[in-house]
Predict the structure.
Amino acid sequence: MIKDVRYRIAFALLKGGDCYHGQVEIQFTANHITEDTFLDYKGRLIKWYSINGREVERQDTYHDHQLILPKEYLKMGENIVVVRFVSNYVRDCQGLHYFKD
């Protein structure tokens, strides 16, 4: 259903804090759209996101580590999702680390 997935990601690493900010742009090709799909995300907060240039304003789109991509925002062919997020630094090898000696 989805192929040719590409990511472009940028981070704002905040010195001395317990979290960092980021933005990811995800491009993919959809061959078939019959229902909502989702992205896995284990971070702290989704600040904002858009699909194909349209801001998603529904409040029920992020839960259980899944960011819902409502089918009414998706289209056949090329899609672009932009997500701005906040994540915690971790110490369990499951993300970005920050240590201060």
About this structure: The chain has one domain: 2-88. The domain at 2-88 is CATH 2.60.40.1730 (Immunoglobulin-like). The chain has no helices and eight strands. The first strand starts at residue 2 and ends at 13.
